[in-house]
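Exercise: predict the fold of this chain.
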Amino acid sequence: MDTPNLKDFVQRIHPLNEVELTAFCSGWQPLTVKRKTILTAAGETERYLYFVNEGIQRAFYLGDDNKEATIVFTYPPSFSGVADSFLTQTPSLYFLETITASSLLRISYDQVQQLQQQYAGIQQLIFKATAFALKGALQRHIELQCFSNEEKFKTLLKRSPHILNLIPHKYIASYLGMDATNFSKLINTVSI
């Protein structure tokens, strides 16, 4: 399978030699899904690492009161999946859902494990990708704990300026930890 987007993405995280790159990219299978498809449900163990070619996905937590808290968005080119469940092979606390129709590649946990055992470069790639994900999660934690709503909004737009046109505002509001009404007011008052 030809995977130029995946190859380019991987090489930016941690360059692999040709043998490692070919081995890593050969195990991925295509998956095309409709919008609003649950890829991983809370309580399930994440069995796949995904690579996003097209579409937008979100991971969200569903509270006892049925209130959703959007944790992360993924869109091309990026890895996707419930990272903590995938890495620990424990049940997920979150749902992974497609917001739009999506074209993905996926590789199983067992295949990734085999590749890491066989190739030091792939093990380093997974380590670096995990480290970047952790760095992003910790930065988000700081934003949610310490930033005002306006600062959270501006930080998001600085990081992902295209997001307002791609993702329904109710999900962005949830991601920023505010209700949809306050988010609407914020959009109308903050100069973009």
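Check your answer against the key: The first helix runs from residue 4 to 13.
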